[in-house]
Design goal:
The chain is of the alpha/beta class. The protein has two domains: 10-51 and 281-371, Aspartate Aminotransferase, domain 1 (Alpha-Beta Complex), CATH 3.90.1150.10; 54-276, Type I PLP-dependent aspartate aminotransferase-like (Major domain) (Aspartate Aminotransferase, domain 2, 3-Layer(aba) Sandwich). The protein has 14 helices and 13 strands. The chain has helices at 8-11, 28-35, 54-64, 76-86, 98-110, 126-133, 150-155, 179-188, 203-206, 251-258, 266-276, 281-303, 324-333, 357-371, and strands at 41-42, 93-96, 116-120, 137-141, 161-167, 195-199, 225-230, 243-247, 307-308, 314-318, 336-337, 339-340, 349-353. A seven-stranded mixed beta sheet has the order 2-8-7-6-5-3-4, with helices on both faces. It has a four-stranded antiparallel beta sheet with strand order 9-10-13-12, covered by helices on one side. A two-stranded parallel ribbon has the order 1-11. Strand 9 (307-308) and strand 10 (314-318) form a beta hairpin. The longest helix is centred in the C-terminal third of the chain and has 23 residues, at 281-303. It is globular and about 60 Å long. The N and C termini lie far apart (68 Å). The protein binds pyridoxal-5'-phosphate. Pyridoxal-5'-phosphate binds next to helix 5.
Amino acid sequence: MPLKKINIKKMIRPNCAGFEPYVAGRPVETIKRELGLKKVVKLASNENPLGPSKKAVEAIKRAASSVFYYPDSNSWKLKKALSVKYGIETSKIMLGAGSDELIELIAKLFFKPGDEIVVSDHAFIRYKMAGELMGSKVVSVPMKDFTHDLKAMAEAVNKKTKAVFIANPNNPTGTYNSTAEFESFMKKVSRFSPLVVMDEAYYEFASVNKDYPQTQKYLSRYPNLIILRTFSKVYALAGLRVGYGFAGGDIVDYIERIRPPFNISSVAQAAAEASLSDKTQVSRGIKLVEQGKKFICSELDKLGVPYINSAANFLLLDIAPLKGREAFQSLLKKGVIARAMDEYDMPDFIRVSVGLEPENRMFIKAFKALLGRKN
Ligand SMILES: Cc1ncc(COP(=O)(O)O)c(C=O)c1O
């Protein structure tokens, strides 16, 4: 019997039918293949080019021969190591295949049509995607000086608000909100007490600033607080996909009920746990980024190209009257993968991650060529 023709689009939940895929940073090998280039550097996904800790690599090798077993569904050792490091009970710790999965698990657990999700304009786009995935209304609040305007975001909260997402620091702007701003925001929204999700993917880089909030200290006071962090950035384990979260009240208990049981592979658990025991991994990453940012910013100053001060491992450049998408293509031809910012409503901007010193130099050289300046 011939197969009946089916209309897949009609079967999709209506709120998902118009979705566009997330634009990920292009991989080095793909660009080499497509453009026939020998040397390509990826400064597109805010990774740590120093690579993972040696301890993590050793742990990966050790874990390799046991991959015929399913992983520990509770990631007990990794949770224990996080618990010791941050002084937070294991029952308040959740793990995801990247903090990205945790964003989506929060959405699946809590959001429904009729809920409002408050985000900032130009904030990390996955919050908006998560809200829309569940058919909730996403309320986007304008930024102030390229920074989350927490006062205005608090004012946007009402009885329909299920969650507020705050990227601190934000990707792609690199800006952060201070402890005083965070405290005042938490007080202001206490009347409605929505979930407050502090996404701190760049926590380690931003923590060098004294007024950056150490939000884990507020968990016992606010049962609506969720903090997300990751092993993808300073710990350089992006390819293994491990993110973690701390949450107040019984949020973790409920997340556990919908979490895919084996979302963190055994190799990833071992590598993340070993990374935490390497005392130098974080400081080496921070140092590289501080030096790299200094170099790139001084070159941009010489060129008169404006950029936003960043507390993270990337910089957002205002390249008007040039367009980000064209600049991206032009840099690509010179072997530099950066990011255009069209999906963030910033068509005149590009974002560049801080790389190793020669990579940063390669970017500046390609960028000068793009501007028609001499090297
Ligand atoms: C602000 C922010 N949050 C979350 C993530 C997701 O990171 P991962 O899923 O690798 O933990 C990223 C990745 O770039 C990010 O920039």
